[in-house]
Write a structure and sequence with these properties.
Family: Belongs to the peptidase S33 family.
Distance between the termini: 42 Å
InterPro entries: AB_hydrolase_fold, Epox_hydrolase-like, Epoxide_hydro_N, Epoxide_hydrolase
Domain Epoxide hydrolase N-terminal: 20-135
Protein name: Epoxide hydrolase N-terminal domain-containing protein
Keywords: Hydrolase
Number of helices: 15
Radius of gyration: 21 Å
Largest sheet: 9 strands, mixed
Strand order of the largest sheet: 1-2-3-5-4-6-7-10-11
Structural class: alpha/beta
Number of strands: 11
Strand content: 5-15%
Order of helices and strands: EHHHEEEHEHEHEHHHHEEHHEHEHH
Helix content: 25-40%
Length: 425
Amino acid sequence: MLSSTWGSPSGTVQLPKEVAPYTVNIDQGQLDRTQTLLKLSPIPGECYENSLPDGSRKLGLRREWLVEAKRVWEEEFSWRAVESQINSFPNFTASVPVNEQGEQINVQFLGIFSQNPNAVPVVFLHGWPGSILEFLPLFSLLREKYPDPARLPFHLIAPSLPGFGFSDQFPNDRNYGMEDVAFVVDSLMVGTLGLKNYVVQGGDIGSRIARVLGNRCEQCSAVLVNYSPVPPPESFDFTTLSEKDKRGLERGDWFRNDGSAYAMMAASRPGTLGLALSASPLALLAWIGEKYLDWTDPLSFTQDQTLPSGARYSRKLMNEIIASVALYWLTGKIHTSFYSYREAFALNGRAPPSSNAQFPVMAPKKVGMMWFPYEVIPTPRAWIEKYSNLVFWREEEVGGHFAQLEQPEVLAKGLEDFIKVLQEK
């Protein structure tokens, strides 16, 4: 196992007593039961919908991919190797308040602390169906670049959001949403860790939480996102759009019209969905696997393997998908992870109670945007500027919805450049 001492707390950051070291270690009996469930789980035969003649996924996941992914999970995948990756970085848990009344939950987080007294605190927020696993390639790159913690220019914090991974779920007393998550994150950063004037980086759900933090929380000084769906400004002239923006809007239309049925289910019937997906690791693999395949830029992962039909696929991406699904399954958190969708999608014709446009991040706060072409809703710069004090904009040529996982080198460079811009202004 790699050493987890790199980035351990030192003189620049002293952790309070409510923060405890944490090691991921799933009980072997649970791993054995998962293997048994996988082996006993049948895959139905071929039909038109799961084996379209044109080789596409227009009607959902292809059966042959699931057959191979099931085999890989049963025969080749090692959860212990995933644990080793996670545990190679300092892990902690902390009891963090979820409201002003002081009710608390335990939050697990990766905490990598610089010995540089001028280090900038950065908190990374994942989305759905993501997790802290998304940030491991990025953190590994930074560990290689800054082996001496005294030179590391950041403190890196990556929590499992409430209801995800190794963190507790929210209490069952009421509906919780993104503003509540933002309260937890700000409490962790400022109240627990004492890290002020922090930067937040996120995509998917994490980008919306980032906007809430930038809008509401004094100690959040800047926001760097790679996903920012907002409506066009009033009277926007669509003839001014670039060809790249037009392709991005077409991608967004595809997502809304053909790729968002899962989200409406998560928004309107999360109880049913959670019960169903919590009954079978294979069902969960199909549900989450489809999202990764549809939302990831094909150029991010080499298509190096061949399925029986002759279709090419990426074994590396398949391994990442299985790891993500295994984390949701082994922590038993899929049913507690859907709460954000009630805010993100309109139901019964009603406008959603929360959206990015409702949380503009304006001066003196600063916003950076990293635009990826295969994002599910690529948004034109002019639209984002309407709701942001945009001081940093970067358009990438390759990358999709899981940018931190797909393009860690690009994210690392973007983060460093964004911090430089903040320090110059």
